[in-house]
């Protein structure tokens, strides 16, 4: 494996850890906007510090590019946390694997180098894995949130199935929006960060993202509410881990390019999401701890397909 692909491998594991903690905070009543804002502020502070230490600054004529890429990243983060508000980590995370196909398509249109046959096969196989992992999601037990009141024409089972079906649709739709936004971010970083220099472009990008995230402040939880919910630690640690994995991904994209293969390796987070999210959910007491075995089996089968896509593409 090329050295630069170790960065997305690291990010794929840290992403799941961060999102499980974020899901824990959201399940306890924290706002997804708080997660989005804090994660982006972490990144802005880290990259601003790197920029000051390196002393490399982006020319003024390139700031609009940094702002545009930063906006795509903020949108991706926002849709990610909204997806986790509606669905499980082990459902939403594999959907993010569609980034592989979206990035490959974008690079084939605007990229400077063609996308190889093996990469396309890997991308298609990764998408098939995502589809397989969703089979049976509607059969998962309904999460707490209101007693069932079946009418004379419908029983409790149909209500549960329909409720879970709509949650799955919302989760998939939001995850696809996140994947599209973050794909635009990846392609923008690969093109412009390599042109202007990653050490100059990335600090400007994430500082712009931090400023843009301030629009979420009216919907963020105040410190007192966070303490009253008892989610200070999972919220702080979770958002820092999300920022850390984004730091690793943006560094690899900005310095090495190769966005398609980087995203195929990053798609392994779907594999970790099945087992690791289930294990941590049992420790944290979130809803994924009670998933039926057959739902986990379908998600695991899809995760195996995702792993095979990485082997083929590399």
Report on this model:
With 314 residues, this protein is mostly helical. The protein has one domain. The protein is 76% helix and 0% strand. Helix 3 (63-86) runs antiparallel to helix 7.
Furnish the topology, listing elements before pairings.
Elements: H1 6-27, H2 32-54, H3 63-86, H4 89-95, H5 99-110, H6 117-134, H7 156-196, H8 198-212, H9 223-229, H10 232-256, H11 259-266, H12 269-284, H13 293-313
Helix pairs in contact: 1-10, 1-11, 1-12, 2-3, 2-8, 2-10, 3-7, 3-8, 4-7, 4-12, 5-7, 5-11, 6-13, 7-8, 7-10, 8-10, 12-13
Using brief descriptors, characterize the structure shown.
13 helices; 76% helix; 0% strand; 314 residues; mainly alpha
Number of helices: 13
- How do the helices and strands follow one another from N- to C-terminus? HHHHHHHHHHHHH
Q: In total, how many beta strands?
A: 0
Q: What is the average of the pLDDT values?
A: 80
Low-confidence stretches: 142-149
Q: Strand count, sense and closure of the main sheet?
A: none
**CA gyration radius, whole angstroms:** 19 Å
By helix and strand content, what is the structural category?
Answer: mainly alpha
State the helicity in percent bands. over 70%
Strand content is: under 5%
Count of distinct structural domains: 1
Identify the overall geometry: globular
- What is the terminal-to-terminal distance? 7 Å
């Amino acid at each position: 494996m090329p050295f630069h692909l170790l960065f997305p491998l690291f990010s794929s594991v840290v992403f799941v850890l961060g999102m499980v903690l974020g899901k824990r905070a959201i399940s306890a009543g924290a706002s997804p906007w708080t997660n989005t804002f804090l994660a982006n502020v972490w990144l802005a502070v880290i990259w601003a510090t790197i920029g000051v230490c390196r002393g490399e600054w982006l020319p003024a004529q390139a700031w609009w590019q940094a702002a545009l890429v930063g906006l795509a990243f903020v949108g991706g983060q926002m849709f990610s946390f909204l997806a986790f508000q509606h669905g499980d980590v082990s459902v939403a995370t594999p959907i993010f694997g569609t980034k592989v196909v979206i990035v490959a398509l974008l690079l084939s249109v605007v990229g400077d180098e063609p996308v190889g046959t093996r990469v396309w096969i890997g991308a298609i196989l990764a998408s098939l894995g995502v589809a397989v992992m969703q089979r049976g999601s509607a059969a998962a037990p309904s999460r707490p949130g209101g007693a069932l009141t079946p009418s004379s024409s419908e029983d409790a089972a149909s209500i549960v199935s329909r409720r879970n079906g709509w949650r799955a649709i919302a989760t998939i739709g939001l995850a696809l929006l996140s994947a599209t936004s973050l794909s635009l971010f990846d392609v923008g970083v690969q093109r412009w960060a390599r042109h202007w220099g990653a050490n100059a472009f990335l600090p400007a990008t994430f500082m712009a993202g931090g400023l843009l995230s301030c629009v979420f402040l009216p919907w963020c939880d105040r410190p007192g509410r966070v303490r009253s919910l008892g989610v200070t630690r999972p919220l702080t640690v979770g958002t820092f881990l999300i920022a850390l994995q984004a730091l690793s991904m943006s560094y690899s994209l900005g310095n090495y390019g190769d966005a398609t293969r980087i995203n195929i390796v990053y798609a392994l987070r779907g594999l970790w999401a099945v087992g690791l999210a289930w294990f941590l959910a049992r420790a944290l007491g979130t809803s994924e701890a009670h998933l039926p075995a057959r739902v986990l089996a379908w998600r695991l089968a899809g995760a195996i397909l995702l792993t095979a896509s990485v082997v083929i593409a590399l």
